[in-house]
Amino acid sequence: MFHFTHSQANPLREKITATYRKDEATVVAELFQLAQFTHQEQSEIMARAHVLAEKIHIKQNKLAGASAFIRDFSLSEDGHIALATLVESLLRIPDETTRYKLVWDKLNEIDDWERYAKHRKSALVDLGGLGLRLRQKSHDDNSPQATWVRVAEKNMEQTFRMLAEHFTAGEYFADAIKIAKKKAKQGYHYAFDLSYLPAQTQAEAHRAYDDYERAIRLLGDETGKTSVYDNPHLALKLSALFPRYEHTQRDRVMIEFYPRIKALYVLAKRYHVAMLIDSEESDTLEMSLDIMEELLAEHDLLGFEGLGFTVQAYQKRSMLVVRHLIDLAEKNQQKLMIRLVKGAFWESEIKSAQQRGLNGYSVFTQKAHTELSFLVCARMLLANPAWIYPQFATHNPYTIAAIEKLGGSQAYEFQILQGAGETLFEQLQHNKAEHKPQRYRICAPVGKVETLLPYLVRRLAESVAADAAARHLIHEKNAWIQPPQDLVLRTQGKPNSHIVLPRFLYGRQRLNPNGLDFSSDMVLIRLQELMNETFDAGKIHAQSLIPMKAAHGNTISVVNPADHNDILGSVAFMPMAAMFNVIATAKNMEKRWTNTSPDKRVELLLKAANLIEAYMPELMALVIRETGKTLESAIREIRQAVDFCRYYAQEAESTCAGRAPIGTVVAISPWNAPLSVFVGQIAAALAVGNTVIAKPSPFSSLTAFRAVQILHEAGFAKAALQLVLGDKEIGEALIADTRINGILFTGSIEVAQKIHQKLAERDDLPVFIAETGGQNAMIADSSASLEQLCKDVILSAFGSAGQNANALRILCVQEDIADAMIDKIQGAMDELQIGNPMDISTDIGPIINQEAQKRVLAHVDKIKSSARFFHQIVLPETHTRYATFVPPTAIELHNLEQIQHEVFGPVLHILRYRAEDLGRMIDQINSKGYALSVGVHSRINHTINFAANRIEAGSIYINRDLKSVTAGVQPLGGHGLSGTGPKAGASFYLQKLTQGKWLLPKRFSRLGQIDANALAVVEQIIAEGSFSREEQVQFALALGKVRNNHTLRLAQLTLKGQLGEHDVMTWRAPKHIWLQGGTLATSLAALIPMLASGMQLVIDSQHPLVAHQASLKNWVKLSEDPMNHPNISHVVCLDKPLAAWKQKLAQRAGAIVKIMDASDGHLDVLPLFEEVVFCNNKTAMGANFNLLIPKESDKK
């Protein structure tokens, strides 16, 4: 049975869960009723706020140095963003070469620094100006090793350390305590944040735990105070103390981790040190509440008033969380500190919800709504002084004035970030208000500069974002201090119009597939019930779904690869004798289905998408049990299937509405994508009017059977969509039948080559789209964030047990960070949970069957003896008896020659490289022949561009994992040994399944450019030749067409995706197109569009163009034997290609060569281009600045 979570017994906790992603306007309406003041109170608050605002404004204008940098920091300025990248990265880079390159890269991004720096007087801006002035004096040397770069780097290092000193309390706690004692004389208290990143290994967690222990002892010993209120406080980041602090690992958290947290608090009680559980991403909140509930009930902590919790006002649940904490404190007769903050992970919450297709956001999208929430929570906290000691972290003058009014003479405190709010505290301390807070506390990070600076960049971005509206209205002080109640009257509680709900990410015509929130117990409880109901439904007995009756062939049982005792049902294979009628049925249906209106086909596809979503729990249960996918992988399968239906419906309605289908299509899909690829192939073919015969893998037949039942339920006729179940003989029979007009295949390159060879026997050229595997690499230089890199490596290499075409196979890491990276990967691997995916805690499920298991283990056994480093997780004995698991394995190679073929399993190969060898290493990766997915991790744009332009890949992921595949945004597909193209989920895919000339995309973010030099050479050859009038007319028409129409050469298309990601489609012209046959005239006519598009050709020694090869040498190469040219990717045939010639070409080793028949004089160059998508994670630096910039709806 499926096991996900336990039910909540507390009604208030249930209400907290129910409010997680509640409609924003509804929540705001509830808050608004609780945020009102009397007219007299409001007048007094506004008067006080005006005084504060005026004094702060005057003081801020006099700031200099690091404080001025904060004042002037702009989220929309390229200069400051470049500097922020330098602050985040420079000091943690271990080697000088990469540091110099980073400085050179960022300073070269800003051309007009004088204009930019004109009104900015901070040290960092002056530093950038110094760097560029040095560059200007070095006209002859603008390389990363130039003297000016070295000087700038040294100055930057000193300035960044100064910046760290301004915003932190020091590297060591002894230093921090000295600062705290000094500030205490000025009336300030301190709270320290160890500023750890979330732990990824047990070693990191233990180091953090030891530091917390030392900090508690030092604070207790050095201060000598017995009051938890007067002593410095500690912010306790739970994720830094346990490497799997995740909702899906709740059992581990409570069993393994909770006792250690309790021990820390018992120690803190002994030393009178308050510790407040820090705020983190919203999906950990309820687990943190579980821990706080346990702590408040602990007898050993009875009477300790240093227990604390941080509440984020930007969360929709914040008011209910405050109410629950108050109830807990009263119930346990235990006073509790509650720190109220705005929230520090806003951009990641938005991005995550969009990425996962969740039902709304956990946070408010309007800043005014967060301010309102803060005010309501503050009122609740101040209303319960017997049980709550409130701490308020805000810089907002109105909120401060309101809290002073509400607080009266009771105990509470204000808090600021060190270096970002001292001006405010000075005004508050010297105010003459009737009521003051009891304490002013400065929150300061402690730690090494190298780790603190990335943390500071995030905090800086969030701090600036929180006050962006205020600084935007710095000269409009009345607007600056407007009560949130008034602002909410303007917004009417509506969400920010610039931040669409996840459901409408791609517009209202193409809904974002529904996802499931695995951090919500309410969702998990219901999902668990629905998925467990599938057991009650009994076994599934699948058979082919065809209109006519047919006898069954062999029947096989289907077992769960994670538990061979779990028998799901059986599959009856179709007998070979029935195949002739299956194809005949599809052919007879062609005319009727073709004549079905595009609108009707779209309607059926959209209905199918909705039904798949409706059957989500059932399909998830089936996918998990039949193919061993984890819960996360299963939901991804279903969402991609739904998305393909909607995307292809949209494309069919627009781009392909008037195009004729090719006829009958066979869709052959793999077990590792039992719904996404299976449904995607079918949806694409049906969308444009083709009839479909679907042949799934024998290992995913039950899932395919149920999927086709759902498609038939949506209204697709059984004759238009037939399901045939069977082994490879069935597939071979379908491929061999000349009545088939197209083959859609996803699987291994070896099988794809066999299909290609069979199709070559035919006289015609049936459509063949093959999506095969990839020797996918990730390249990381020493500027990469080790934490982000480790997270992406683990997910990309071991997710779905490595059984994805786009899984990471080779990590290439710069030698300067290789040892640290390998240690981190090893520790993170040890935290992975391998087991039955029916348990939510499972990270990695089984390999599909014993044959696949043996292949992967054989590779590991062969290579491990010669490995530089080898690490493999030890499997429990129970996992080796009745299941087919392969333990996650990491192997460091000596060179890339040690891996020749794709290894389809959880095996990561690691190769370290020298920085100067980056280009050679990329060439070695390219020499493998695959070109599917590649990742690049770097903070240096020059390095990213160099690698991306040199590498052969269909998808290039920048500073992120390789797993994301979204139709129309991050479409998957490659070239070379990775497939024939076009990409599934991109606009050319449907055009390939229809007849006629291909159409360009309707909009470009950058227009293409023809190769004018190449065209000039062709024109010169034509001018000097003797051609007939008809031939000259053809030349003129061709030349006019390429000059007047757009080209894909150098063109870009920005794809609409989630916030924080920048996705761009580009097209690369092949460099080795064999131009076969033709006369001189037809060859020149073909050259015009191809050379204008940037393509390079190969001809044999007998070709008519040989006479002009000297003039064309930059674009046309001579080969004695093009048939065996190793790099030929396409053939353009100006003479009719004969079957014998095609068969010989198909026998070549290596990638499938695509043939285009242009013997009729009509050459369409668009199908020759290779699609390449760049997926850039703009949040990699720590915050998505563009997302944080306040939009108009925030300012109204």
UniProtKB/TrEMBL annotation:
Proline utilization A proline dehydrogenase N-terminal domain boundaries: 11-56
Cofactor entry: FAD
Entry superkingdom: Bacteria
Top-level EC class: oxidoreductase
Domain Aldehyde dehydrogenase: 552-998
Catalytic activity annotation: L-proline + a quinone = (S)-1-pyrroline-5-carboxylate + a quinol + H(+); L-glutamate 5-semialdehyde + NAD(+) + H2O = L-glutamate + NADH + 2 H(+)
InterPro entries in UniProt: Ald_DH/histidinol_DH (IPR016161), Ald_DH_C (IPR016163), Ald_DH_N (IPR016162), Aldehyde_DH_dom (IPR015590), Bifunct_PutA (IPR025703), FAD-linked_oxidoreductase-like (IPR029041), PRODH (IPR041349), PRODH_PutA_dom_I/II (IPR024089)
Residue stretches making up the Proline dehydrogenase domain: 177-467
Pfam families, per the entry: Aldedh (PF00171), Pro_dh (PF01619), Pro_dh-DNA_bdg (PF14850), PRODH (PF18327)
Record-annotated Proline dehydrogenase PutA domain positions: 68-161
Keyword Cell membrane in record: no
A GO biological process held by the record: L-proline catabolic process to L-glutamate
One Gene Ontology term of the molecular function aspect: DNA-binding transcription factor activity
UniProt KW Flavoprotein keyword: yes
GO cellular component: cytoplasmic side of plasma membrane
Pathway: Amino-acid degradation; L-proline degradation into L-glutamate; L-glutamate from L-proline: step 1/2; Amino-acid degradation; L-proline degradation into L-glutamate; L-glutamate from L-proline: step 2/2
NCBIfam families (UniProt xref): D1pyr5carbox3, PRK11904.1
Function as written in the Swiss-Prot or TrEMBL entry: Oxidizes proline to glutamate for use as a carbon and nitrogen source.
Protein family (similarity comment): In the N-terminal section; belongs to the proline dehydrogenase family.
Name of this protein: Bifunctional protein PutA
Organism whose genome encodes this protein: Alysiella filiformis DSM 16848
Lineage: Bacteria, Pseudomonadati, Pseudomonadota, Betaproteobacteria, Neisseriales
